[in-house]
Structure formats: structure tokens, C-alpha cells
Amino acid sequence: MISRRNLVAGIGAGMASALASRAMAQSFPFKPNQRYPDPAIEILDPSFAKYRLYSSTLEQVATGMRWAEGPAYFPEGGYLLFSDIPNNRIMKYSEKDGSLNVFRSPANFANGNTRDRQGRLVTCEHSVTRRITRTEKNGKITVLADSFEGKRFNAPNDIVVKSDDTIWFTDPVFGIAGEWEGFKAKREQDNTNVFRIGTDGKLTAVITDLVNPNGLAFSPDEKKLYVVEWKGTPNRSIWSYDVNADGSVSNKSKLIDAADQGSLDGFRVDRDGNLWCGWGSNGALQSEPTDVNGREVYQLKGRPEDLDGVMVFNPQGKPLGFIRLPERCENLTFGGPKNNRLYMASCHSIYALYVDAHGAT
């Protein structure tokens, strides 16, 4: 005989299952390596060996997204927030119980997220609203900026908070360029800038000459600002700038060039100043077609399976190591109770790896 209590419990479990299924898109099967050290961690320079934990292997902690981006870790609650852009939502992964839930939907096609120095979520709303918001501790959403010189932003992309509480973000056009990461819309800004929001709320365009700037981060001492340029170099690159006392930047120099195959996206810096960069194929095609089963096909430059992962560079731009992933990595962050767990947002999934490095912030 079914009791009322069991019936209610069954209905609740069914509803939870339905909600969970709606929270998923395409799940990606993953078989972890059983051996130590994990061959997915490749040492390109002997100096990287000290950052590899011999008895740590790559884990897939969440899957079911269409385009995972913008991971931000919150140590107070032991959870990771990240965007699933085409599904117009922010997801929440809990370290405590391994659960994956929808944190916010709709989310105005949120892209980059970060945690400010007071433990609040700061988000780049990538389309529709095209603004920078802060989620207060009580859940209220505060709009920090939505326009520059009377014109709407393009599509705020990635974001970082400096130790002086100023907020820096990039504004390329991806969220309004088509119908995948938002809604196609008219561009209003003449340039694709890097902006700074002062503690007084003043908005400044600190970099105006990059074509679609993307990921950005500071060096550990915050004397350098690094910014990915998505186009125009002609390859994707990371530019380095000196950060001046007044909040301006100067002395632009190229630190990393991804060459004609690789793709730079989001990245983070560790306490030693190394840059941990999301990596993958940039989609560039060979100049001539090749025969594939009787058809002339323009193949990619480089194989995605050889490029997908995380590339690690030292502060001088020298490649040190590579973390091989089964999916292209868009963005990453350091987290975990000791700030030494690398979370990697990679297309459909979130991967994690304990390393002997700690995030700079």
C-alpha cells in the first residue's frame, strides 16, 4: 500500500528529476585515467613539473551544457558558478554534494563572471541587456554599467575585479553578432574596448585599439594587465600593459601569439605569475582542399584533439605545460578550499584538476 508520505516523496523526486533533465543539454561521456601520473598533463618545460601533482587526475564534475563559460568560485559556499550561454542561464556546481543546478534563468545570456572582494557575483550580461551587474548578498541585482557616452555596450564578455575594487571588463561583439550567444543586434560602440569602472562609478575606456578583446587578468602584483585580442593581429594574442597609478595603462607589448591554429579565450594567473589559458582550435581552414571519401573538403589547420585543453605560459610567454582535454576550453578559474583546484569550462562540461599552484586572486 502506498502511503501519503511515500506518494509525496515520489512526486517530489519526479519533479526534481524533471528539473534536472531540463537543466541538461548535451551530456558528454568521460572516462578518467586510472594511472598516475595522468598522461593528460603534459610537461613542455621541466619547470612545469613542480605544478603537477603526481597523484591527481583530471575529473569531469559537470556536463550537459551547450557552451560553458565564465567560471567563478565562491569559497564561502564551496560552489562554482558558470554560464551556459546559448541556454541563457547561469549554473551552480556544489563541491559539497556534487550537485548541478540552475542558479539563474534567464540570465541575459551571461558570459563572464567573477567574485568581487566582498564575495558578490559580478556578471557580464552578454546580450539583451548588454550590461554589467552585481548580485548582492540578498539576491538583489544592481546594475553597475550599461552604456558608454550615451551608447549601449556591444556585448560585455569577461571581467575581473582589482584589489582596489575597480572593475575591468572587455566589450567585443560576440553576443550581438548572431543568434547563438544571444540576439543579433545593432552595434552602437565604434570600438571594442576594455573598460574600467572606478569605485566612484566612473566608467573609462582604458584600451580602445583591440579588435574584439576577450579574456583579461592581472599579474599577481597588479602591475601588469593581460588582455586577449580575438582578431586583428592576425592571430589570437595576449597583450601585456603596464598599469599606472591613475588607472590608465601603457607600454603595450605582445606576450603570447597563438599562431595560426590555436585559440586563446579566457585565462587566469597563478601566484607565480604563470598564465593558465583556455586553448583549442580557432577554426581556421587549410588553404587547399583535400580528398575525403571522394569529396574535396577544406580541413582545419591542426587537429582539435591535439589543441583542446589548457596551455600554461610563464610570465615571459614561454610555454610550460599543457592539460589535454576532450573538449575545447573556453575559460577557467582556480577554486577549492585551498585555491589549488583548476576548474575548466569546456564546451559541454566542467573539468577539474588539483594542481600544485594557487590562483593569484
Structure notes:
By secondary structure, this protein is mainly beta. The protein has a single domain (35-354), classed as TolB, C-terminal domain (Neuraminidase). Helix content is 6%, strand content 42%. It is built from two helices and 27 strands. The protein has a six-stranded antiparallel β-sheet with strand order 5-4-3-2-27-26, with no helix packed on it. Strands 1-25-24-21-20 form a five-stranded antiparallel β-sheet. A four-stranded antiparallel β-sheet has the order 6-7-8-9, with no helix packed on it. The N and C termini lie far apart (57 Å). The model is unreliable at 1-22 (pLDDT under 50). Its cofactor is Zn(2+). This is Gluconolactonase. A divalent metal cation binds at residues 69, 214, 265. Keywords: Hydrolase, Metal-binding, Signal, Zinc.
